[in-house]
Specification:
Oligomer: single chain
InterPro entries: ADH-like_C (IPR013149), ADH-like_N (IPR013154), ADH_Zn_CS (IPR002328), ER (IPR020843), GroES-like_sf (IPR011032), NAD(P)-bd_dom_sf (IPR036291)
Family: Belongs to the zinc-containing alcohol dehydrogenase family.
Shape: globular
Cofactor: Zn(2+)
Order of helices and strands: EEEHEEEHHEEEHEHEHEHEHEEHEHE
Number of domains: 2
Keywords: Metal-binding, NAD, Oxidoreductase, Zinc
CATH superfamily of the largest domain: Medium-chain alcohol dehydrogenases, catalytic domain
GO biological process, one term: formaldehyde catabolic process
CATH topology of the largest domain: Quinone Oxidoreductase, Chain A, domain 1
Length: about 375
């Protein structure tokens, strides 16, 4: 079938809208999804700019939501016409997967970043018959249709607007899951979050739901810090103006916070977040590193027992966690719709530019369908 896709050709170059042929002769475990809308994540931009490898030309996009229109012969989890959110692909067979940790799948690279199926076949081609790399994060949802696998489609309720739900598959799941599933704060505890884009704001909302009574948001943009306060932050720090750890230790919570969470991947910021936690504090890192090496000051660790952990996709089981987030949204506890701005597919490059410049927190691309 012919689909319309935003194709990345070169690093840092605008994506091009192209008609692409998609082979819809499904393998037994595959699912064909009509994409209604897709969130833009900073990882999409990072892979476009080749900070991480993915072969070009490529159809990126990994926060898709849509309607199932066809299933493979062995698929039982979803049926035609089901509403679904697309998430990270995993094999379901390795040690990590069978122990309930699919975000650490041992086959994550082959399933998400190869550009083809694991056997080397490519279901996407241009009109000259040349392959177009797809299956990005198991979905390549910067397109009107997505070929996915049964394992990375999550059935969701039809009671919530489907166009809103795609970001739950990656960014929002990552922020909220890192709090709920990894840090697991209890009532009265404290956390500091650096970088309050969508991932950080999801973490702040999760911390509020968890009962944290001190929630510190750190950013360089005052408008983001204002939104962080609206969503649950009790204190804010503009790190262009104030030293993070000094402000925490001297003026907000002497002794430091129980937990830290960083979405910036900036070494100097990570050091400050570590220094902002108390002895035996636990800090998690999220997001794509902007530099090759992680370097933090030894003084942040020395004789403190502080720990630092990298977390993938919120350490979540998407089939369980995404419906939980939707339920929290329906109860008014996780109002992620306050982060969203919608764009049409033809304006995807403007949406990416607005995301890069902090104009838009969470851009969602609506797909054109008759």
């Amino acid at each position: 079938m012919e689909i319309l896709a935003a194709v990345s050709i070169h690093a840092k170059a605008p994506m091009q809208l192209e008609h692409v042929d998609l082979n819809t002769e499904l393998r037994p475990d595959e699912v064909l999804v009509k994409v209604i809308a897709t969130g833009i994540c900073h990882s999409d931009i990072g892979f476009r700019d080749e900070h991480m490898p993915f072969p070009k030309p490529a159809i990126l996009g990994h926060e898709g939501a849509g309607v199932v229109i066809k299933i493979g012969s062995a698929v039982t989890k979803v049926a035609v016409d089901d509403h679904v959110v697309l998430s990270l692909a995993s094999c379901g067979k390795c040690k990590s997967c069978i122990s309930g940790r699919p975000t650490y799948c041992e086959n994550v690279s082959a399933l998400n970043f190869k550009g083809t199926r694991t056997d080397g076949s490519c279901p996407y081609h241009n009109h000259d018959g040349e392959p177009v790399n797809g299956l990005f994060f198991g979905q390549s949802s910067f397109a009107t249709y997505s070929l996915s696998n049964e394992r990375n489609v999550v059935k969701v309720t039809p009671d919530v607007p489907l166009e809103l739900l795609g970001p739950l598959g990656c960014g929002l799941q990552t922020g909220a899951g890192s709090v709920f599933n990894v840090l697991r704060p209890t009532g009265g505890q404290s956390i500091i979050v650096s970088g309050v884009g969508p991932v950080g704001l999801a973490a702040i909302m999760a911390a509020k739901i968890s009962g944290c009574t001190t929630i510190i948001a750190v950013d360089i943009h005052d408008h983001r810090l204002e939104l962080a306060k609206e969503l649950g932050a009790t204190h804010v720090i503009n790190s262009r103006i104030k030293n993070i750890s000094e402000e925490v230790q001297n003026n907000i919570l002497p002794g430091g916070t129980d937990y830290g969470l960083d979405t910036t991947s900036v070494n100097s910021v990570i050091t400050e977040i570590l220094k902002s936690t108390h002895i035996l504090g636990h800090t998690v890192l999220l997001g794509m590193p902007s530099v090759e090496k992680l370097e933090v000051d030894q003084s942040a660790f020395l004789a403190t027992g502080r720990s630092l952990q990298y977390v993938n996709a919120g350490d979540s089981v998407a089939d369980l966690f995404i419906p939980k987030l939707i339920s929290l949204y329906q109860q008014g506890l996780f109002p992620f719709d306050k982060l969203v701005k919608f764009y049409d597919l033809e304006n995807i490059n403007q949406a990416i530019e607005d995301t890069e410049h902090g104009i838009t927190l969470k851009a969602i691309i609506r797909m054109p369908h008759d």
